[in-house]
From TrEMBL:
Keywords: ATP-binding, Cell cycle, Cell division, Nucleotide-binding. It comes from Humitalea rosea. InterPro entries: AAA+_ATPase (IPR003593), ABC_transporter-like_ATP-bd (IPR003439), ABC_transporter-like_CS (IPR017871), ABC_transpr_LolD-like (IPR015854), P-loop_NTPase (IPR027417). Signal peptide: none annotated. GO terms for cellular component: plasma membrane. This is Cell division transport system ATP-binding protein. One of its GO terms (molecular function) is transmembrane transporter activity. Gene3D superfamilies: P-loop containing nucleotide triphosphate hydrolases. GO terms for biological process: cell division. Coiled coil: none annotated.
Amino acid sequence: MLRFTDVGLRYEGAALSAPEVLCDLDFTLAQGSFTWLLGPSGAGKSSLLRLMGLALRPSRGEVEVLGLRVGPNPSRMARRGAIASMRRRIATVYQDFRLLPYLSVADNVALPLRLAGRAEASLLPDVAEMLAWVGLDHRHADRPATLSGGEQQRAAIARAVVGRPDVLLADEPTGNLDAGQARRLLALLIEMHRLGTTVVVATHSEDLPARFPAAALVLGGGRARHVQG
Ligand SMILES: Nc1ncnc2c1ncn2[C@@H]1O[C@H](COP(=O)(O)OP(=O)(O)OP(=O)(O)O)[C@@H](O)[C@H]1O
C-alpha cells in the first residue's frame, strides 16, 4: 500500500520562496492496484515516482510505503537502514535504464536476485524466462552498450520484474519501444498487477491507458488528482 498524507516536495537548494515541485498530495494506492501516472512534461511524474520508491524524502507530510512511514526528518521516522531494506521490495524502471555497463544483459537481470541472496542454480531459470519474455534471450551475453535503446529498455524492465517486487514503478517504460513491444510490455505489467504487485506507470502515451483503463494520478500545477478506474 502506498499512502501520501499532505506531502510537499521542494528539491534541496531550491529557494524557500520557490513553489514546491509537488504539493498537497493526499492519496492512497491499495496493495495490488494498477495506476497510470499522467501529466505534461515537467509536471513532476519522475519526482513522484522517486518519492514512492523512497529515493527522496518529502519536504513535508508523510509517505507510507508497505507500512514504512517516511517524513522529512530522518531522526523521527524510518531510518536509512529500514529504507534501504524496504527499497529491495520496490523495483523501478528508470527513464535512462541505469543498466550496469560492465555486466552482461543476463547478469544485469540477475542482479536483484543475487542481492537478495538467491542461490545461483535457482536464479538461472528465472533470468532465462524473463529474457525470453522481453525477447532478449539471444542477447543474454552482450554488454548493455551494444544494445539498441529499445533493447536496453527491455533489459531494464526484465531486471525490475524478475524479483517479483511488491511495488513496481515504471517511468515512461515504452518510450523507446515500437507498438508491438509496447503492447507486450503492457501485458507484462498487467500480469505483475494480477500477481499482486502494486504497479504505477508514468506515461505520455494515450494509447497505453486506452488499452488498459485503470485508476490514474493526474498531475498538474504540482497537485495530483486521483481518478478511480
Ligand atoms: N534533481 C532535481 N533538482 C532540482 N529540480 C528538479 C530535479 N529533478 C526534477 N526537478 C524539477 O522538478 C520539476 C518536475 O520534474 P520531473 O522530472 O519530476 O517531471 P516529469 O513530469 O517527470 O517530466 P518529464 O515528463 O519531462 O520526464 C521540474 O521543474 C524539474 O526541473
